[in-house]
Structures are given as structure tokens and as C-alpha cells.
Amino acid sequence: xxxxxxxxxxxxxxxxxxxxxxxxxxxxxxxxxxxxxxxxxxxxxxxxxxxxxxxxxxxxxxxxxxxxxxxxxxxxxxxxxxxxxxxxxxxxxxxxxxxxxxxxxxxxxxxxxxxxxxxxxxxxxxxxxxxxxxxxxxxxxxxxxxxxxxxxxxxxxxxxxxxxxxxxxxxxxxxxxxxxxxxxxxxxxxxxxxxxxxxxxxxxxxxxxxxxxxxxxxxxxxxxxxxxxxxx
Amino acid sequence: xxxxxxxxxxxxxxxxxxxxxxxxxxxxxxxxxxxxxxxxxxxxxxxxxxxxxxxxxxxxxxxxxxxxxxxxxxxxxxxxxxxxxxxxxxxxxxxxxxxxxxxxxxxxxxxxxxxxxxxxx
Lengths: 232, 121
Prior knowledge:
The complex is a heterodimer of chains A (232) and B (121).
Chain A: H1 5-14, H2 18-34, H3 39-48, H4 52-63, H5 68-79, H6 82-89, H7 98-106, H8 110-126, H9 131-162, H10 172-184, H11 188-203, H12 212-231
Helix pairs in contact in A: 1-9, 2-4, 2-9, 3-9, 4-5, 6-8, 8-9, 11-12
Chain B: H1 7-31, H2 49-56, H3 58-71, H4 78-82, H5 85-100, H6 103-120
């Protein structure tokens, strides 16, 4: 079989990222068992949503019986960043048919976006790669991530059913968020956003409907914007 | 803690988040038609600068709002608050996250520290 070069390149480039994705997915599976979801619901989240941070936050809020609109709104806020990815990657795929673009959109993640745009940037200098090459590379990255995400979810479901609560595996959830948070605080305004959002979320933890997370996040975003303005 | 929502409600939540997340992902990919006048250099220019400024702070603010309450438990005294197992383990994990930026290393050190504090000390 003739495997397109760019598909192979995508799979090769995404391999090192599995080291971060596999534990993330396993943690999600374990947390889904803890939250009382059925295996089908957990896999349903991984298939229909396919966005780790929002999936974990959804479990957290469902386990605490947060109001349904709060659960949905929180997940949407977490995934809003993908508007940027969609806008940024769209020009590379503009000549494709709508249905193809819908398929690519479904697979869009932080990692697929970052690797693909980096690849297209370097290719544009040397040789102009066609939309077909770009799509193969993107699919190589994105579909690999998807498969690993689903397998990791199932592994976590199996592990979560077998490990007693006393091990405190629920603590792996904030640890995953922590590993994502630290690199996200890369300058003064983003650090201000993080610290303010976190502190307010602790103070607001007792708010009704589990609104503490949304309130903390909103205050953090505003604080980041103010800090940015203050530096100009 | 486990959810007390019935199966159908959980499925409704899963599907609602799935549909809305897909809409976010597809948004600009769908808008950018082949007849669009904007060139390749216009990438990202379609999101207004104001919205982009807000979106920049979504990840740190949301992630911190998820992490802090899971790690910090307010106790009656400052000493009790600061000597909490999860806070100490979280601090160790934060240091590792900062040095390595590795999810696996952060989980390993964080869980190792938690177990050490709970079982050994």
C-alpha cells in the first residue's frame, strides 16, 4: 500500500506527544469511574467531545451535581480557545469541500493545531505544499491522537474499576490540570490571570450551583486583561 | 463523589457539549470558503483583536480555577491550611511541571508525594 509521505510525517511528529496524552486519557477514564459514569458515557465523552480539559471538568461538575447549564457552559468556555485554532488553520484548508472541512474540524485539538501550523510554516518556505499534503499531515497527527485518546480512556476505565478509592487516584485530575496550567502562565498578565482565577475559585467554592469555577475563571480573565493594560 | 443525575441527563450533557464543541471547531473552517478574498497571511485576522485578547487568558484562568480548589482546602488556621497533604504534594508537582513541562512527570511526582505524605508519615 502506498502511504502518503505527509501522513507518515504527521504520525512520526505526534509520537513524542503520546507521553503526555496517554496519562491524561487514563486519568480521564479513572475519573469517569469515580464520577459514577457508565463506561459507555465515558467513551461517549471521549468520542463526542474529544477535548481532555473540558471532559475532566465535566466529570468534576457532574460528580458534584452542578446545574446542567453550568456544566455545559463551563465546558464550552474551556473549549472556546479552539475558535482561535479554527480561524488560524482555516486558510490552509479553504479549497476543500465543506464536508471534508467538517471532518477535519471534528479532529481539531491543541496538539493537531500546533504541529500542523508549524509544519505548514516550514513547508511554505521551501516548497509550496498542496492542500492534499496539508490534509494528510493533519490527519496523521489528529487521527493518531484520537485513537490514543480512546484507547487511553478505556485503559483508565479498566484501571479505575480495579483500584480502591484509598489510593487517592482522583488527585491525578488536578495534577493533569497543573501540568497544563504552569506552561500557560508564560508572562506577567497570564500569571496574574491564573493566580487571580485560582484564588477566587477557592474563595467562591461554596457558591450555589457550583458557579465557583466560572466565577473564578471570569475574574481571572478580567484580571489578565487589566494586567496587560497596566503594562502598556 | 458520584453523580446523582439519571443516565439520560448525563447523555444529554455529553451530546450538548459535543455539539457545541464541534460548532466552535468548525466555526472559522466553515466560514473560510474557497471564494474568500483573504489570503493565507490573513490567518487569525478574522478573530477580532478584542476577542483574541480575551481568549489569551482563558487557559490560565480556567485551569487555575480547576486546580486551586482541588489542592487548597481552607482550614481554621493558616498552619493547618498550609500543611494539607494535597497542597504539599501539589506544590511539589507544580515545581516539576515548571521544570519539565511533562504531564507524566507531574503526575508521577505529585502522586508519589501524596502517597509518601499519607502512608509513610
